[in-house]
From TrEMBL:
InterPro entries: DIOX_N, IPNS-like_FE2OG_OXY, IPNS-like_sf, Oxoglu/Fe-dep_dioxygenase_dom. It comes from Pisum sativum. One of its GO terms (molecular function) is metal ion binding. PROSITE patterns: FE2OG_OXY (PS51471). The lineage of its organism: Eukaryota, Viridiplantae, Streptophyta, Embryophyta, Tracheophyta. This is Fe2OG dioxygenase domain-containing protein. Belongs to the iron/ascorbate-dependent oxidoreductase family. Keywords: Iron, Metal-binding, Oxidoreductase. It comes from the Eukaryota.
Length: 358
């Protein structure tokens, strides 16, 4: 598309304040041009004959506080998964299934509520709660097939009245549970690095928490677009709750691997900032979400990082992990600087890590 044509179509789409769901509700049968993505010829593991070698680890957190042997096994599993995949699923994580189900229902309820009520939250200006379609709508090469809301949780929690009534109670309840779970996960990651259990938490990795609720409507031509483009997360860690529909894939050994929905499980993936401070020991892996022809998909991704809160604090490779044989591979940076570089220079979803390599 010519730039002026795309700009005109993007503006018209944005001004409806109805997002991708509004297009589907209108009964479209063709995906608009602004959502067309170049074809990706990377192999997909699910289409391979040897799918069993491409399975995301599932780690059982049961008894990690009572049984030292169970904790040791979990720490070893977390280390292996963090070094190899940068992704793993967790079960027996402590968040009740009832809360997980209510949170998925809450995301669905927000996006499927009355349009006039939902439109009141539509904005691109920074607020404690924001609803919009495509955070990089005006900068990206192509739009993605999803609508989102953003909720900032920490270090400054939102006022209840700033949140939509339809999901207010469960959003606060769920994110408070995720915050506690994040502290436990950072303990396990610290131990997996050979550090004191409190190291990453004291280092500031758990200071910030914000969440994106995503709604991926069913798509009439899923082969032409994506729910989320290939990207890595510019945070320390992400905890993702996805529904039963599926569509999340990670890039591993030049192949797309499905991350299948598991009832009661949460997905944990490490972000670019963890790779930076661990000096490449732990991996931040690119991932995407494919569009689907069937039912709408919902998810909520909780990000640990102070992206939306300015801070002068800098982060670099952890000194305890460095040696003469393993010198620092990255220069120090603040999260604000890191994110600004990502948003201004990495518009195609590429990681900003290379910019900070020594």
């Amino acid at each position: 598309m010519e730039d002026f044509e795309r700009e005109k179509e993007v503006k018209a789409f944005d001004e409806t304040k109805l997002g991708v769901k509004g297009l589907v509700d209108a009964g479209i049968t063709k995906v608009p041009r602004i959502f067309h993505h170049p074809r990706d010829n990377t192999k997909i593991a699910s289409e391979s004959e040897d799918t069993k070698n491409y399975t995301i680890p599932v780690i059982d957190l049961a008894n990690i506080h009572e049984d030292p042997r169970a904790r040791k096994r979990v720490v070893e599993s977390v280390r292996d998964a963090s070094e190899t995949y940068g992704f793993f699923q967790i079960v027996n994580h402590g968040i009740p299934v009832s809360i997980l189900n209510q949170m998925k229902d809450g995301v669905l309820s927000f996006f499927e509520q009355d349009n006039e009520v939902k439109k009141e939250f539509y904005t691109r200006e920074p607020k404690p709660f924001m609803y919009y379609s495509n955070i990089k709508l005006y900068k990206a090469v192509a739009a993605t097939w999803k609508d989102s809301f953003l909720c900032n949780m920490a270090p400054v929690p939102p006022k209840p009245e700033d949140l939509p009534i339809v999901c207010r109670e469960i959003l606060l309840k769920y994110l408070n549970q995720v915050k506690k779970l994040g502290s436990i996960l950072f303990e396990l990651l610290s131990e997996a690095l050979g550090l004191n259990p409190n190291y990453l938490r004291d280092y500031g990795c758990a200071d910030g928490l914000y969440a994106f609720g995503h709604y991926y409507p069913a798509c009439p031509e899923p082969e032409l677009t994506l729910g989320a483009v290939k990207h890595a997360d510019v945070v320390f860690m992400t905890v993702l709750l996805q529904d039963h529909v599926g569509g999340l894939q990670i890039l591993h050994k030049d192949m797309w691997i499905d991350v299948p929905p598991i009832h009661e499980a949460l997905i944990v993936n490490l972000g670019d900032l963890i790779q930076l401070i661990t000096n490449d020991k732990f991996k931040s892996i690119e991932h995407r979400v494919v569009a689907n022809l069937g039912a709408p998909r919902v998810s909520i991704a909780s990000f640990f990082g102070t992206v939306y809160h300015q801070s002068t604090r800098t982060f670099g490779p952890i000194k305890e992990l460095l040696s003469e044989d393993n010198p620092a591979k990255y220069r120090e940076t603040s999260i604000s600087e890191f994110v600004v570089h990502f948003t201004t220079k990495c518009t195609t979803g590429t990681s900003p890590l290379m910019h900070y390599r020594i």
